[in-house]
Amino acid sequence: MSNHVYIITGASSGLGAELTRQLLLEQNTVFCLSRTENDDIKRQAVGYRYKFYSIDLSYAERVALIMQDILATIDPININSITLINNAASVSPIKDIQYCTQEEIISNVQLNLTTPIILTSNFMRLTSEWKINRRIVNISSASAQYPAQSMSLYCSTKSALNMFSKCIGLEQDGKPNSVQIFTVDPGMMDTNLQHIARTSDFELSDLFSKHKSEGHLSEPADVALNLISLIESSVKKNSDIIRLY
Ligand SMILES: NC(=O)c1ccc[n+]([C@@H]2O[C@H](COP(=O)([O-])OP(=O)(O)OC[C@H]3O[C@@H](n4cnc5c(N)ncnc54)[C@H](OP(=O)(O)O)[C@@H]3O)[C@@H](O)[C@H]2O)c1
Fold first, then answer.
1. H or E stretch including 215?
2. What is the pLDDT of residues 209-230, one digit of tens each?
3. Whose CA is nearest to atom 44 of ligand 1?
4. Alpha-carbon distance 241 to 33, whole Å?
5. Cα(238) to centroid of ligand 1, in Å?
6. Cβ contacts of residue 213 below 8 Å, gap of 6+?
7. 176-222 pLDDT tens trace
8. According to its UniProt record, where is this protein located (predicted)?
9. Strand order of the sheet with strand 241-243?
10. Does a cis peptide bond (omega within 30 degrees of 0) precede residue 93?
11. Ligand 1, atom 19: closest residue by C-alpha
């Protein structure tokens, strides 16, 4: 029986759902956070160590309590590692910034940036006495480095998430019982996020359609497989931004 625990945000579809499926099959304990539960995973998870929390992660002030609830159910004596995967994100709103509402701006920044920061902070503090491997994986994007019109919130929150991870990596370097933190750019995957980018009315939608029609999108199941082997490998990756493609 595996003694590894994973906490995954955005586990109902795309990359998060595939990570959850594969980690459950490896007999890991998986805590999933998103607004909706994936019915297939719910069926698959019968008899496995799986718990789903329904939460809208764009309300960042609610996420600390969930992290406390999750960690309170775990006895660190019985596990070897715990990994937080900040995966949930949204590419919306796809609009020039002057047309974004205040609510859309706040919602995007909270989901893509504030929530991962608060989860990271609480995870690190509440597990600080746990003598096990502790890891945080932040899912980023090439958009963190390439400015794009009508995608300013997505690009800038991903860019800030990269910098946040590097800063925390520095804070942890050389500390006893440190947390390993790194960022992963998974590359373009055939998920709902890509569908939204293709079907939105903006300058780059044709480019996103071309990526799909020319077969440039990876299957999220393949990306999840690579990401799990990266997480489980003992290669030192603190503060790194790792491209999976
Ligand atoms: N697809 C790509 O080409 C691509 C490329 C580079 C990076 N990425 C990154 O990869 C990660 C996964 O993306 P994906 O492509 O797998 O996206 P996806 O299929 O759209 O899945 C997004 C996940 O986030 C959750 N989510 C969205 N808004 C939420 C909210 N307000 N509260 C709670 N959960 C929320 C969704 O669940 P609910 O709707 O049930 O809440 C869903 O489980 C993201 O960080 C993304 O930026 C993707």
1. none
2. 999 999 999 999 999 999 999 9
3. 89
4. 24
5. 24
6. none
7. 999 999 999 999 999 999 999 999 999 999 999 999 999 999 999 99
8. Cytoplasm
9. 50-54, 29-34, 4-9, 81-86, 133-139, 180-185, 241-243
10. yes
11. 14
Query: Token pair 């999750």 is at which residue?
Result: 70
pTM above threshold 0.90: yes
Q: How far is the centre of ligand 1, averaged over its atoms, from the C-alpha of 139 (Å)? A: 10
CA 146 – CA 193 distance, rounded (Å):
17
Taking CA atoms, 207 is separated from 97, 132, 191, 197, in Å, by 20, 45, 16, 9
Contacts of 70 (CB under 8 A, 6+ apart): 7, 31, 51, 53
The pLDDT of residue 238 is 84
pLDDT tens readout for residues 84-100: 999 999 999 999 999 99
Q: Using an 8 Å Cβ cutoff, are 8 and 31 in contact?
A: yes
Helix and strand numbers (H, E) in the chain are: 9, 7
d(CA 240, CA 140): 12
What domains, with CATH codes, occur in the chain?
A: 4-243 (3.40.50.720)
Q: Can you tell me the distance from the alpha carbon of 193 to that of 168, in angstroms, rounded to the nearest whole number?
A: 28
Three-state secondary structure of 169-197:
HHHHCCCCCCCEEEEEECCCECCHHHHHH
For the chain, strand residue ranges (E) read: 4-9, 29-34, 50-54, 81-86, 133-139, 180-185, 241-243
